[in-house]
Amino acid sequence: MRAGLLALPIAVLALPAFAQSLQLSGKFGYLSEYELSAKVAAHASNGKREFSGPMIVRHVGVCTHDGPDQVDGTISLQFSDAASRVKAVLVFDGHECTFSGKLSETDGGELVCRSAAVPFNMWSQ
After folding, report:
1. Partners of 89 in beta bridges
2. How many domains is the chain partitioned into structurally?
3. Which of 104, 107, 121 is nearest to 32 (CA)?
4. Structural domain for 102, as ranges
5. Helix (H), strand (E), coil (C) string for 45-114
6. What is the pLDDT of residues 16-68, one digit of tens each?
7. Domain-located, residue 31
8. 110 part of a folded domain
């Protein structure tokens, strides 16, 4: 009985760590002409650290472009063993793109879409 009572507070204390969310920001394009913002929530997936949620992509460049200035989408991330390395899938404006790299405002990678790969930085706040 006493062991069961002790296990309950430990289980309750573990919930907030799993139920956390992350605020993400990012920039992509050759001239960083697009920004993304997202709030992703953690969810269970075979013991891996995974997050997903809605995302907004905004065109912030000076030049004109085809399409709307803002589109909604979704993002899902899976953290690797190294805390800042992620694999991400972004879905927006009818496109699915992938990123594998660090969550870093300065150390970028590539956002790979079907038609092109562009410079990409994403970080958590």
Report:
1. 76, 98
2. 1
3. 121
4. 21-124
5. CCCCCEEEEEEEEEECCCCCCCCCCEEEEEEEEEECCCCCEEEEEEEECCEEEEEEEECEEEEEEEEECC
6. 344 489 999 999 999 999 999 999 999 877 777 899 999 999 999 988 888 88
7. yes
8. yes
Strand (E) positions, 1-47?
21-28, 34-43
**Are the C-beta atoms of residues 19 and 9 closer than 8 Å to each other?**
no
Residue 30 in any domain: the answer is yes
Q: Encoding tokens for residue 106?
A: 């300065």
CATH number of the domain where residue 27 is located: 2.40.128
pLDDT of 111 > 80? The answer is: yes
- Please, are residues 26 and 122 in contact by the beta-carbon 8 Å criterion? yes
116 inside domain = yes
**pTM of the predicted model, to two decimals?**
0.78
